Amino acid sequence: MTEISAEPVDLEPAELTLAPLPVAVLTAPGGPHAIKEDLRQVLAMTADGKLYISPQHVSDPYVMAFMDQLEHKGIDYEVVSASMTEIKTLYQASASRGMKALVETQRQAQVVEFMGDAHRRGASDVHIVVSHDVTRIKYRLYGVLQEVRQEKSDVGREFCAALYNSMCDVSGDYYQPHIAQDARVSRKFVDQLGLYGARVATRPLVDGPLMVMRLLYDDTSKQSFEELGFLPQQIEHFRRLRSLPYGLNLITGPTGSGKSKTLQVNLNALYDETGGSRHILTLEHPPEYPLKANQSPIYAGETWGDGITNAVRLDPDVLMYGELRDLASAQAAYTGAMTGHQSWSTLHTNNVIATIQRLIDMGVADYLVTDPLLTTGIANQSLVPVLCPACRIPLRDHTHGISKDLFARLKQLQIVDQVNLVGEGCSKCRNLGVVDRTVIAETLLTNVKLMDTFTKRSASAARRYWVNEMGGITKIAHGIMKVTSGEVDPRDAELFAGPLDFDRQLMEQSDV
C-alpha cells in the first residue's frame, strides 16, 4: 500500500538535500516517466521512489491516473506532500546540478529506476536475461526469482552496456557481451539509491547475455543471532568460538544464504563483547558490508599471501577473510590461524561435515584441515521464506496443495496439524505470501574424536557421530522445527535444505 506523508517536505531552492547527490527526476523531459508540462507543475517522481505531489492536487484526475499507471507497472513509491514551488525546485535542481551528467542516457535512467524499485522491494539480486526476442528482468525476493518486466531484446542489450560502461568502476575496460565480466556499481549511484554497494557479473548465454546485480544493503534491521533465526544452542556455539584465542571458523552455505550477514553480526558481537579492545582486521576482495572492524581490500596486484604477510604485521587479534574462493585464500586463512589469530571466513558448501572435505579438495593439507585446534568451528546455513501471518493457510484444509510424498513425510513426522502453507498474498505482504527470510542452520564445534572418525571412516560416519554423540542439530532438523511452528512452508524447507526425512535416511546408513 502506498504511504502518504502528511508532513510537508522542507526544500530550499538554493540547496536541495534529498540525497548525497542529486536524485534523478524520472518525470522530467526525457526521463523514463516523462509527463506533460502542466502535470510537472504539481507532481515529480524521483529515482529514490518518492512521488512529490502538491496537496491541493492529490485528487486531480490526471495525478490519480499517473499513480494508477505506476501501480499497474508494479512500481512501488511513497507519496510526499510538497508545494508547487518545491516541486519546481526539484526539476530546476535536477537540470542545473548535473542530472544529464549523472544519468547520461535514457537507458541509464531506466536502469537507475529498476534498481531503485528492486531496492525498495528488498530484492537481493536483479537479473537481466537477454534472449533473441525479449529481455526479462527478474528480482530475487525472499530467495525466489520473480519476473517483474519485459523489454525488447535490443533494449536489454542497451541496459547491460549502459550499466557496465557508464555506471560501474571498471579501470579502462568496456562491456563485452561475448565474455564473462565482473564489476562494481560506482559509489555515486549506490549512494543515490541508498545501497551500501552493488556487484555486477555477466556471462554470455546461447541466446544473449546474462547480467546479474547483487544488491548490498547496510541492513540494520537484524543485528542479533536471535533476530536472524538461530537456535539457543547455535548462538552459544558462536559465543564459544568468539572466546577462543586462535583457530579458523567458517560460515558456510550456498550462494545467497546470508553468510556475510551472519559474519557481520558475529564480528560486531565480538567487538561489542570486548569493548573494542581487540583489533579486528579484514582482508576482503572487495569489502561488501560495514563492520565494526578495520576493513581492507585486496588491492590490484596483491596476492592473498602478500595480504596475510602484511596483515600479521599490523598487530591483529582477529582476522576475517571475506571468502575462501581458492587454494591461495584458504592457505592464507590457515596461516592466520597457525600464527595465533582467531580467524573467520565464508565458504560454499552443503553442510558442516562436507566443509572438511571441501577444504581438502581445494588443496589444503589434510593434517591442517583435520586438526581441531586449527579448524575450530563450522556453521552451515540457508535462508527460507517466512510465511505472512495474515494470509498463510493451514495444511489440514489444503492438503491438495502439496505432493503425496511430502504429505507422507509430514504425516510420518506427526506434524500435519501444525503446518501452514503460503497463501495467495495480501496487502500485508505485497501479495507475495511471505514477509521475510529466516535462517535454518547447523553448527559444529570440532573435536579430536570427530576428526578421527572423518579421517579413518567417512564423512557420513563423522556426521552420524556429530548427531548421535555430540548432540548436533542438523539444518534439516532446524527446518522441521520452523515448519512445525507454522512459520515456514514445508515445500520451501525442502527446496532450500532437502527432503525432511533426509536425516533419518542418513542415520540408517551403515559404513561401507
UniProtKB/TrEMBL annotation:
Annotated PANTHER family: SLL1921 PROTEIN, TYPE II SECRETION SYSTEM PROTEIN GSPE-RELATED
- Protein name as it appears in the record: Flp pilus assembly complex ATPase component TadA
Regarding protein family, the annotation reads:
Belongs to the GSP E family.
Bacterial type II secretion system protein E domain segment(s): 113-488
- Stored Gene3D superfamilies: 3.30.450.90, P-loop containing nucleotide triphosphate hydrolases
Alphabetized, the UniProt keywords read: ATP-binding, Nucleotide-binding
